[in-house]
Design goal:
The chain has 62 residues and is mainly alpha-helical. It has one domain (17-61). The protein is 84% helix and 0% strand.
Length: 62
C-alpha cells in the first residue's frame, strides 16, 4: 500500500477510536465520567490529524 493510503487509514482509525471509546464508556460502563479521557483524546486526534494533513499537503504541493 502506498504511503498516502497508510497515512489516511491511520488518521481515520485514530479518529474513530476516540468515538468508540466514548460510546463504550457511556453505554457499556454507564458512567459519563469515564468518557472525559476519550473525549480529550478525540480532540487531540482531530488536531493532530489536521496538522498532519496540512503539512503533507504543503510538502506535496512543492
Amino acid at each position: 500500500m502506498v504511503f498516502k493510503g497508510r497515512l489516511s487509514i491511520s488518521i481515520e482509525t485514530g479518529i474513530q477510536n476516540g468515538t468508540l471509546a466514548i460510546t463504550i464508556a457511556t453505554i457499556t460502563l454507564k458512567n459519563a465520567e469515564f468518557s472525559i479521557v476519550p473525549a480529550i483524546y478525540g480532540l487531540l486526534m482531530f488536531g493532530t490529524g489536521a496538522l498532519i494533513i496540512f503539512f503533507r499537503k504543503t510538502l506535496l504541493a512543492k
